[in-house]
């Protein structure tokens, strides 16, 4: 289901991503969720799309997610 606030995101997102990356994840997830209505793998697709959106703007540096500079 779509997330209303960053505080509603799963722990794996909330506890590891910076606030801005959480905003990106939430927006991409919610858009993807709406675009996959009726798909039995709706949630899985929305999570994959959201992570891909984050990875366009952030990269993992050790244990931290840092902006890519784009």
TrEMBL record:
UniProt-recorded name of the protein: ChaB family protein
- Tell me where on the tree of life, at the top rank, the source sits: Bacteria
Query: InterPro entries annotated for this entry?
Result: ChaB, ChaB_sf
């Amino acid at each position: 289901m779509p997330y209303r606030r960053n505080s509603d995101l799963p722990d794996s997102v909330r506890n590891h991503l910076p606030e801005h990356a959480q905003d990106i994840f939430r927006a991409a997830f919610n858009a993807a969720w709406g675009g996959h209505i009726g798909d039995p793998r709706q949630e899985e697709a929305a999570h994959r799309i959201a992570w891909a959106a984050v990875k366009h703007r952030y990269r993992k540096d050790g244990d931290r997610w840092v902006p890519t500079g784009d």
